[in-house]
Amino acid sequence: MNAKNKQIMIKKAVFNPLMIWLGIAPGLLIFILFRLVPSIGTVIFSLTDIRQTPGNAVHFVGLENYMDIMTLNMRDFGNALIRTGIFTGLVTIVQTALALFIAVILNMKSIKGKTFYRTVVFLPVILGVTVCGLAFKLFFSVDGPAAWFLHLFGQSSTFFGDRNVALYLVIFCQIWFNVGSEMIIFLAGLQNVAPELIEAARIDGASDWKVFWHVSIPQIVSVVAVNLMMCLIGSLSAYQIILVTTKGNEWTKTLSMMIFGIAFNVGDAGKSNAGRQGYASALQVMLFLIILVVTLITQKIQNKVEEKEGIR
């Protein structure tokens, strides 16, 4: 058998449709069981009056849950939506900018101990959301280090119980927890920037800022877009940090936390509409639609930017 025939046989074996399906079957099965089926179930539950209490009869109510959201509970839903917008906007902007700044600093050849600093920034991701949230909760407790520091200046605050600062403390905690993940992605992108382009720009007399803005950034546009997309989606659906630090009190009840609170009778959201899992499912569907719209808009902007930069 000559080499050409061997190559043909290898191609047929590799691109055999049966082998391709066998290869993707495990991942596809996991996606169907743990993503697609629960998603379809959520839509179905949103059209019923299913509750947390077992044994209750479940009735089909059509769009009644959605009507309740837009009429009876419109104010609560609107406030949660505003808090979600503030939370998502600040986290996305600050976290992405901070991660990029840290990545640029830790990508410099002149910086010593880069491995140590990268580990420190990434450490919250390793510790997990519960540990980070509890650490913040203890630090900003009424008798914690932050309260002691304020007392030195004759000031006081309830921190997570203060309507003026609670949401921003949660935002700060969310950024601290996730900035390491974005930093790693930015570092990977920056390290793939062609060094000859940077050297050519410096030979032409470009400053470090111009090299970064006109050479590095265009080369990592896709990386920036990926981080922004992940941060947007993650922020819109984030509730873990809020659950651990405040249990979704009145000042930190975002839409995702409102959904969790109603479904499982937790926090401020659990006081009203407690255990109405059908109602919570309707809220989840609305959150999904919001995320879908935001994702499509972001993707469209990304495509235009990449076309402008000549990446597509």
Describe the structure.
Residues 81-298 form the ABC transmembrane type-1 domain. The protein has 312 residues and is mainly alpha-helical. It folds into 2 domains: 1-34, no CATH class; 46-308, MetI-like (MetI-like fold, Orthogonal Bundle), CATH 1.10.3720. Helices cover 72% and strands 0% of the residues. The protein contains 14 helices and no strands. It has helices at residues 3-14, 17-45, 64-70, 74-106, 114-127, 129-139, 145-151, 166-191, 195-203, 208-219, 221-236, 240-245, 255-264, 277-308.
Sum this structure up briefly:
With 312 residues, the chain is mostly helical. Helices cover 72% and strands 0% of the residues. Its main location: membrane.
Topology:
Layout: H1 3-14, H2 17-45, H3 64-70, H4 74-106, H5 114-127, H6 129-139, H7 145-151, H8 166-191, H9 195-203, H10 208-219, H11 221-236, H12 240-245, H13 255-264, H14 277-308
Helix pairs in contact: 2-14, 3-14, 4-8, 4-11, 5-8, 9-10, 11-14, 13-14
Transmembrane segments: 20-45, 80-108, 120-140, 165-190, 211-239, 279-298
Protein name: Raffinose/stachyose/melibiose transport system permease protein
Membrane topology: Multi-pass membrane protein
Number of helices, where a helix is a run of at least 4 consecutive DSSP H or I residues: 14
Spatial separation of the terminal alpha carbons: 42 Å
Query: Outline, from the CA principal axes?
Result: globular
Q: Class of the largest domain in CATH? A: Mainly Alpha
Order of helices and strands: HHHHHHHHHHHHHH
Q: From the 3D structure, determine the CATH topology of the largest domain.
A: MetI-like fold
The helicity comes to: over 70%
Round the mean pLDDT to the nearest integer and report it. Answer: 87
The CATH H-level homologous superfamily of the largest domain? MetI-like
- Tell me the quaternary state: single chain
Q: How many E strands?
A: 0
Radius of gyration: 25 Å
Low-confidence stretches: none
